[in-house]
Amino acid sequence: MTTAEVVLAIAWLAVTAYALFGGADFGAGMWDLLAGGARGGAAQRRLIEHVIGPVWEANHVWVIFVVVVLWTGFPTTFASVFSTMYLPLTAAAVGIILRGSGFAFRKVVDELPLRRLFGATFAAHP
């Protein structure tokens, strides 16, 4: 195997890990969205927070790992692609940040309108 093939194999495994572990993350967002009203869905939302709490932030570490691997393995191609795709990649990063923030902030607010806002931000898929 060449060095390029090894780098691509590592990136492929990391993207696969993100897809597998991220499925729970995004599935929880959809479940949260469809859980019901503020009172009726409260128990389900607490369960979602409990179950996904340990892994929700770690999922995106796989994306960062892939970016670093590709940057290290193919610096010229990386520079070309990431400078060309700057706007969509920035939009994806902002979406990931907002979604994670919505999940974290919803746990610490008590006002229903803010809980709904942060819950909707979490449920929205980037």
Word description of this protein:
With 126 residues, this protein is mainly alpha-helical. It has one domain (3-123). It contains 6 helices and no strands. The chain has helices spanning 3-33, 42-52, 59-73, 75-84, 86-106, 112-123. Helix 1 runs antiparallel to helix 2 (42-52) and helix 1 (3-33) packs antiparallel against helix 3 (59-73). The mean pLDDT is 84.
List keywords for this structure.
126 residues, mainly alpha, 0% strand
Question: What would the average pLDDT be, to the nearest integer?
Answer: 84
The SS-based structural class is: mainly alpha
Order of helices and strands: HHHHHH
* Count of distinct structural domains: 1
Give the overall shape. elongated
Most strands sheet? none
Low-pLDDT runs of 5+ residues are none
Helix content: over 70%
* Assembly form of the protein: single chain
End-to-end separation in angstroms reads: 35 Å
Q: How many H/I helical runs?
A: 6
Beta strand count:
0
What Rg is obtained from the alpha carbons, in whole angstroms?
Answer: 17 Å
Which percent range describes the beta-strand content?
under 5%
List the helices and strands and how they pair.
Blueprint: H1 3-33, H2 42-52, H3 59-73, H4 75-84, H5 86-106, H6 112-123
Question: What's the short version?
Answer:
With 126 residues, this protein is mainly α. It is 79% helix and 0% strand. It is built from six helices and no strands.
